[in-house]
Design a protein that fits this description.
Layout: H1 10-16, H2 22-32, E1 39-43, H3 49-55, E2 63-68, H4 71-84, E3 89-93, E4 106-112, H5 121-131, E5 132-143, H6 149-161, H7 171-174, H8 182-191, E6 195-207, H9 210-221, H10 233-247, E7 254-265
Parallel strand pairs: 1-2, 1-4, 2-3, 4-5
Antiparallel strand pairs: 5-7, 6-7
Bound molecules: S-adenosylmethionine (SAM).
Length: 270
């Protein structure tokens, strides 16, 4: 299995990004209206914060599985679960595109912000459908195409100053992530055989300093957007330009976290 790009940033992600996503996790958990006895799968669990929000609402009959491509993320999630004293969790290395679970296993599948990074989104959704029981529910959270729009704007600016530097000025897409709009994602989920119960977008804006902004972005992408520049002085120059482009907003820089939520169901008839 290929160790994905989140492995080197697992710790930084858990400290710098995940804490800012709590409103997303709580929103998803609220929408799930758990009874407590469900068998739940969290795909791309990362450091495990969403998983913890779910497992603390489960009773002895419930169980939470998490899979992630990154061994470090799995380790962090296991540590968090054991520190919190939750034994009805099981985190293991696994690929969303090829899951080692039987058909019709889970009452609920959730996935928060892993979806943009998987190379084959139809296959991901087909795998979710396969492992869900008939009538099982799916809660998907995915970074929207409005997320970190300030960062994308900074990229546009420096692409103008350095023509051809970043092919389409879209930093996340340069690294293979695909950020969807709400309607695009709803259409994709529905096309893959799910019945849609609810869909909405949640955006939060907060003030932040430019270097903290870059720190947070880099905890997701590890500066991979600069990789094809090599490791020379040019890379450092472009990094500074990104920082400057972010700073040019009179110190009033805002960070926009924005995610799409889709609540869907597998048909009751298999
Ligand atoms: C942005 S992090 C999100 C982590 C966590 N769910 C959260 O919302 O904070 C994306 C996670 O998805 C995992 N991931 C990416 N592609 C995956 C795949 N094909 N199968 C399983 N996990 C994957 C990464 O390793 C990473 O931990």
């Amino acid at each position: 299995m290929k160790v994905n790009s989140f492995n080197p940033v697992a710790k930084a992600y858990s400290q710098t990004v995940a804490p800012y996503r709590f409103s997303q996790f709580l929103t998803l958990v609220h929408e799930l209206r758990l009874k407590g006895s469900e068998k739940v799968l969290d795909i791309g669990n990362g450091p495990g914060e969403l998983s913890m929000q779910i497992v603390q609402r489960l009773n002895a009959g419930g169980f939470l599985y998490g899979i992630d491509l990154s061994p470090k993320m799995i380790q962090l999630a296991r540590e968090t679960a054991s520190k919190s004293g939750y034994s009805n969790t099981h985190f293991r290395l696994g690929d969303a595109l090829n899951m080692e679970f039987e058909d019709n296993t889970f009452d609920i599948v959730v996935s928060s912000n892993a979806f943009p990074w998987v190379p084959n989104r139809n296959r991901f959704l087909q795998e979710v459908l396969r492992v869900l029981k008939p009538g099982g529910r799916f809660g998907l959270v995915a970074l929207s195409n409005k997320c970190y729009k300030e960062f994308a704007e900074a990229f546009k600016k420096i692409t103008k100053e350095n023509p051809g530097l970043f092919p389409n000025g879209k930093p996340f897409e340069l690294m293979g992530a695909k950020l969807h709009s709400l309607l695009e994602l709803k259409k994709l989920v529905s096309k893959n055989g799910f019945m849609i119960d609810k869909y909405f977008q949640l955006s939060t804006e907060e003030p932040i300093k430019a270097d903290e902004y870059l720190r947070r972005v880099n905890a997701i992408v590890n500066e991979n957007y600069l990789d094809y520049l090599g490791n020379n002085g040019h890379r450092q120059k472009i990094r500074n330009q990104v920082l400057q482009a972010l700073q040019n907003k009179n110190g009033n820089l805002k960070i926009t976290e924005s995610s799409v939520f889709i609540l869907a169901q597998k048909s009751k008839v298999n």
